[in-house]
Write a structure and sequence with these properties.
Structural class: alpha/beta
Distance between the termini: 20 Å
Strand order of the largest sheet: 1-2-3-4-5-6
Strand content: 25-35%
Mean pLDDT: 97
Number of helices: 6
Largest sheet: 6 strands, mixed
Order of helices and strands: EEEHEHHEEEEEEEEHEHH
Low-confidence stretches: none
Helix content: 25-40%
Bound molecules: zinc ion
């Protein structure tokens, strides 16, 4: 069983607090204060990074200093630009948060060291800035071919997989999608739901 709490950070970033059997992990710690608030006095056991951008690891050093027993996990390919890290990850590695098991996928494109955490049993993927709701991340470092391959892998996940991405871009990406497919009724319904959530200040992730 994997519980996920969405933690809005900075302007439009999302960090996530994962809980399984009382083991706690944070994914992409952007900002310390909202993460501490979500922890409600509990201790972190794991800190997971998807990639090296500051708006995803900005609070990593402070959280590691505050919870020295917490294991920090990040991509081996980012070894020169994420610190401190306790375990370096590569494609196919498995990690365990309580009884929840995630597979590590190497999905370059947005950056050359980007990884995703794929919880097959919990039907959840934490994909950072590679795939967003109705959009994808910018190619800062990788090639279009790399990004295409990474997106194709994510697309092949089961349809009920919850996509926990790094930013709240749903309405912006949705407006673009609607300009391409103005007669797509499913998209219009989906955007309507997203607009209601955003009007209430709620995340559209996962939707
Ligand atoms: Zn990024």
């Amino acid at each position: 069983m994997l519980n996920v709490k969405v933690i809005p950070c900075l302007t439009d970033n999302y960090s996530y607090l994962l809980e399984s059997d009382s083991v706690l992990a944070v994914v992409d710690p952007s900002e310390e204060a909202p993460i501490l608030a979500a922890l409600e006095g509990r201790k972190l056991d794991f800190i997971l990074a998807t990639h090296h951008h500051h708006d995803h690891i900005g609070a990593l050093p402070a959280l590691k200093a505050r919870f020295p027993q917490a294991q920090v996990l990040a991509a081996q390919a980012d070894a020169h630009r994420i610190a401190p890290v306790d375990r370096w990850l590569v494609e196919g590695d498995q990690i365990k948060i309580g009884s929840a098991v995630a597979e590590v996928w190497f999905i370059p494109g947005h950056t050359t060291g980007h990884i995703a955490y794929v919880f097959k049993q919990g039907a959840a993927v934490f994909c950072g800035d590679t795939l967003f709701t109705l959009g994808c991340g910018r190619l800062f470092e990788g090639t279009p071919a790399q990004m295409w391959q990474s997106l194709a892998r994510l697309r092949a996940l089961p349809a009920d997989t919850r996509v926990f991405c790094g930013h709240e871009y749903t309405l912006e990406s949705g407006a673009y999608a609607a300009s391409i497919e103005p007669t797509n009724l499913y998209l219009q319904k989906y955007l309507q739901k997203a607009k209601v959530l955003r009007a209430q200040g709620l995340p559209t992730i996962p939707l």
